[in-house]
Amino acid sequence: MSQPSLSLSVKLAIAGALLALMALASVGMTLWVSWQLQGGAAAINEAGRLRMQIWRLAQTLSSHHGPATLLDRYESQAGQDTLAQALVSPVPDEEARLREYLQQFDATLALLDRGDPARPLVVPHDRRTRAALVQVQQGWQDLRSDWSGTTAPALLAQQAGDFVARIEALVTAIELRMEGWATLLATGQSFIALMVGAAAVVLLYAAYTFVLAPLARLQHGVAQIRGGDFSARLDTGRNDEFGALAADFNLMAQTLQSFYSELEARVQEKTRGLETERRRLAVLHEAAAFVLKTSSMDELTQGFARQARAAAQADAAAVRWFDETSQCYLLLASDSMPGDLVEAVRCVPAANCPCRQQTGEARMRVIPIANSVAKSGPCARAGFDTAVNVPVRVHDREVGLIELFYRAPPALGEDDHSLLDTLASYLVGAIEGLRAGALEREAAVAEERAMLARELHDSIAQSLSFLKIQAGLLREALQRNDEPSIARTLAEFDAGIHESLADVRELLLHFRTRTNADDIAQALRSALTKFEHQTGLPAHLSLKGAGLPLPPDVQVQVLHIVQEVLSNVRKHARASQVWVEVRQSPPWSVEVRDDGVGFDTTQRLADDEAHVGLRIMRERAAHIGASVEIVSVPDCGTCVTLELPVRAPPQEA
């Protein structure tokens, strides 16, 4: 039994990690050696600067009467003051120059001692180099002590030369150390070159062994499969990813071989399934289209009975509804059922019907009529062998049945069951839709009746009440034979009748109002023309801006509000002319102004015609989401402004 080997990814990861570590180590060693070489070169440069500085210092000291004078003065000055104070002290030029040279020399020597990683600058830390550096430092201390006394210029040159020899020894030690680092760098680079070559060979061998060769065998197998040879197999002896891939390839080849041998049978099976699904979708599409165009319960149930029978390939079908009040199943529609059976099942008590199911357990059932309690019933007498009951449910509550009758046992599958259940859900949705539509129509009629009642109450009813009062006054005047009162009352009676007739005409005008769905301007012009004809007052219409047309229902309400304002102007304003201004840009606004007597809006209005008219206007405005603002000044006229809300533009389909 072979031991499990490392996977290909692990092998490649190990090889890559080793190569990366070797490369990083080589690069790190190279960088470190290069840094040492750069630091040594900078140190040599600084040591060379020491030679120049010591000769310059010796020359400066020998050019004066005595070096002791300058050095002693410098030492005493440096001992008493800080460096900054010494620099600003008034000293001769020779002393300032000497101080500058000494400071530069001390700074260079200190830099060699501590190094500078930023440049980089570093003196090698080997024993020979460090000993040479110590000799230079000690020599400088000795030389500085000697030069503090009186020294002849010839002796100054000799001492400076001896000190330069120590510096030369330091430079030589650094150069020798740098030669060693250069040799190490060359050796390391040669090793890196050899390592790169060896790594290339190893990688090529590993790539061929672990990747290229197995990949070539896999490509060969794929070419065989592509050529139709499904018997192609690969060697699965490897315990890595290519071995697993070879096993999957063999499984794929075996599966393809099996599929190819059974392809014709599978294609036929899939074709039958697709045909069944196509038929199911066609039935559902037809049912959905039928629901959209039906408008009555009889048409709906009759059509569903016909569609259910055709979809299930039944011999007859019926749609029955469960009446909870009478606890009976009522026949709503049938298709291809014998007349005797239709009469027998038109109203069946639930207790006597074998189709009844418990609440919450309603499901599709297949009832063998010949082997059930219904074997002596009307279905058996009509020659049917099997009945299929599809419950019509609303929230898991059975509200009806779609019954399918067969003269031979049917072969219904799961797809047929799903199709019939979906048709049942379509039926209950359509019935609920018809109910909702009926409720909406009833609500619309009720709202229209309420509006008509308000209009009659606000106009004709009040006028008739006024006429009733005048009739009583006329009767009393006749009994008193008071001719002036009779004449005055008859005049008021005649005015009331004319007012009632005007209100009736205005109501008829309101109820016959129709607008153009694209333009409200023509309807407003027509309303103002009728107003001018009734009152003789000039009416002016002004249209400003351009915007999306108002919906028809909004246009009707706007026109009714304008007509109500004009009616109030006719009845109460005693105006000489009227202005109507319409701003069509969003938001829409309609403003109606007159120059009549106006009224005080701060006072509480009595419950009279004007107050009722204002209430009706506000109700109409609230119905379309608008607002009405009334501004009136006594003896200056009234302005009524209708502000419509901003509407979103219609979405494109």
Helix content: 55-70%
Please outline the major beta sheet: 6 strands, antiparallel
**Unreliable spans:** 65-70, 76-91, 604-610, 649-653
Gross morphology: flat
Distance between the termini: 70 Å
How would you describe this protein?
The chain is α+β, with helices and mostly antiparallel strands and 653 residues long. The protein is 64% helix and 11% strand. The chain contains 16 helices and 11 strands. The chain has a 6-stranded antiparallel β-sheet with strand order 3-2-1-6-5-4. It has a 5-stranded mixed β-sheet with strand order 7-8-9-11-10, with helices on one face. Helix 6 runs parallel beside helix 7, helix 9 runs antiparallel to helix 12 and helix 15 runs antiparallel to helix 16. The longest helix is centred in the N-terminal third of the chain and has 74 residues. The radius of gyration is 57 Å and the shape is flat. The C terminus is likely disordered.
